[in-house]
Fold this sequence. Notes:
This protein is mainly beta and about 110 residues long. The chain contains no helices and ten strands. The protein has strands at about 1-5, 10-20, 25-35, 45-50, 55-65, 70, 75, 80-85, 85-90, 95-105. It has a four-stranded antiparallel beta sheet with strand order 4-1-8-9, with no helix packed on it. It has a four-stranded antiparallel beta sheet with strand order 3-2-5-10, with no helix packed on it. About 15% of the residues are buried.
Amino acid sequence: VDLVYDSSPVGVTWVLNKLELENDGTETESLIRFFTATDSSLANLPLSTELCLDDGNYVFNIYDGLGDGICCDDGEGSYAIVVNDQQIAKGGDFEFQDAVNFSLPLDVGE
């Protein structure tokens, strides 16, 4: 996960969950990693987090407590999800939340 904060990073949180199907058919989420910015010194700074993930289905959620996302009202922040040097998702222009679902291993066409 590559993230560049906007000018107001406090209250920005990202969460990565693994989606799992239970025996009764219900889908559950297992927390893999989360990070919450609690310090304004992260303003406009990049943050990269490397994770080793098993094959499966995942959901990445990013939240902004101010409701202006991480781009473009208060700086040029962004996020990207990179798997094996291949960018599979990017964003930053959202209000309170953005979500990306992805599966590993990646399909050849992705």
